[in-house]
Give the backbone structure.
Amino acid sequence: DIWAGPMSYGTQLEVLLTLQRIMEHFVAGCLSLEPSRASHAVRVVVAAAIVAVGDAVLRKKATDLHSAVSMHLVGVEDREPFGPSTALFASQSETIEASLQELNITRAHCLDYFRQQQIPDQNHIFSWEKEEYSMQPERSALQFATLIGKSLNCAASHYSVTGENPYLVHTWPEFAAYRDICYWFKYFLCAHRALLPSNTNYRQSRNAMLRWEYNGTLRVGAFNCRDLMDGVRNSGGFLASGHRWPSNAIPRGIGTQEIRTEDDVLYIPTLPTYSDALGQHDAELLLSYLTVPYLRIPLVLNFFATDDRIHALRDPGLRTILDAVLFEPSRFLPPDVTTLPVEVPTLEPRLLGTS
């Protein structure tokens, strides 16, 4: 039992190395396929689950040899714990279409698990997403490596994080395994147009082994590419929505006109008719329902359930909207947040999330 049972250091290391291999196989398979909204949900949630399991194993105190990586990840001598940030995962996974209950449940468990670790912002490590994936070296990762290095009586540097100075990763191999699974997790969350190409040559998992370099910035290579973020950093190609796959449940007028409240709907002179599948009155109703994410599922289902509207779903755009309403998990609300909204519309939209 990796959650509650005792564990030796040998088992701890074996689990981390196995997770690293699983992640490499998973990445090779994912990058062999054309990216899609459905596959993106699987990519980010499975990668998050791998990181969560690896993190939980490393936070256990081994029954024999105590890993320095494990001790400083948890926090020793009144030091606060270290760990990866999952804020980007929480945001990106709001718009995935989780048509399988396992994806929704796993997403919620992962977000809840990392929230329970109570990692302070200054101790977030392996946050490759900072500054639009510029891959600048982190002070927190260097501090983490320095604390681990003290147990070996050696000074740590950014070359210790990359493994170019191999003493740290040679002594504690779980550090490199943990670093690598966190990298692929953050890679899948990147909302850049040039990311995630498809190539059948990616099928071999050995090509997913990461190669790290430090030369002022961190460069991470795989699949015969020296730097996976070379076309991403400082290129300005990030999607404006911040999501790899923006939500299809956001109400919009004709074109890209975004609608935020029901009042916005009332002041639009001509509403989209979805290839004449809906009249202006019905379009007004549907767009109004989409402005209330917390209530939109029963409202939209009831809207399409009538005899005169069910046939409107012949339009692909309306089917896309219905899928998004049903399967996008939207904002995550941690179970320990018990505050209720006191205003309508609320000034704290985070309270309208789901757990």
Observations:
- The first helix runs from residue 9 to 30.
- Residues 159 and 165 are 5 Å apart (CA to CA).
- The chain is about 45% helix and 0% strand.
- The radius of gyration is 23 Å.
